[in-house]
Design a protein that fits this description.
Shape: globular
Strand content: 15-25%
Number of strands: 7
Distance between the termini: 28 Å
Radius of gyration: 17 Å
CATH architecture: 3-Layer(aba) Sandwich
Helix content: 25-40%
Amino acid sequence: MPFELLPGTPDSPVLLHVPHAARTIPEPVRRGILLDDAALEDELDQLTDAHTDILAERAAAAARVTPWRLVNRLSRLVVDPERFPDEREEMRAVGMGAVYTHTSHRARLRPPDADPRPLLDAYFTPYAQAVTDAVDARLAATGRAVLIDVHSYPSKALPYELHGAGARPPVCLGTDAFHTSDELLAHARRAFAECGGTAVNSPFAGTYVPLRHYGRDARVSALMIEIRRDGYMAEPGGAPGPGIEPLAEALTRLVDALS
C-alpha cells in the first residue's frame, strides 16, 4: 500500500499528514537509483523523517477527538508528495523536485536521462488525489479542514538545504499566509511551549495544502510541524528516545485545541 488513510472520529476536522516517515522503495524504483545499497541506506537515514508516524499515531490515540491520519508508506526517494510537480518548485534547483535527481549531498541519485513521468503517474498523482479527497471529506463532514503536516529535520544543515543558515529550533512551525491563521499558530506555540522552544519558518517555511484548495479555500487551515531530530532520536537514523513522549503529548494538545 503506497499510503494509508487511517480514520478518525467522523466529526473531527483534523488531518495529520505524515509524508516522509517511510523507507520503503519498490524494487522497480530501486533499479533506477544509482546509489549502491550502503549509500542508499545512508541517504535514507539522512532524509527519512523517522518515527514521525509514531508521533502521529500516539497523538491520535491520546486525543479527545481522534484525528484522521494520512501516512505515506513509501520513501520520499520514490516521489516527494509535498513538492510542486512543475517549475514552481524551488527545490528543483538542487535536484529535489517531486522526483529527486540528486541526493541530500548533491550527488547524482538518478541518471541524467531518467524520465520522471512514470513515477509521477504511478505515485505522485494518486497520492495527491488521496490527500485532496481526505480534505474534501473533512470539509463535507465538518465545514472545515485542519491539515497538520508532521515532519522532522536534522540538527545540522544538509548540503541540499536552500535556507539552512537560519535558526534550527527544537520545533519549527511552517506557515502559509493564506492557510495559517494567527489563532492556529498560537495554538501550536502553546502546545509545543514545553518542548524547548519554537520558531516560525526557520529553517523550513511553508506548509502543504492540496493544489485544489491552495490559495483558494479559506476553510482549509494548514500548519507544518518540523521537529529537530536530536530532541527525540539518535541521529541520523537511529531509534526513538525518551524525548518522543513529550512531543507526542504536545501534538496531542494541538489536536485537542483544534478539534
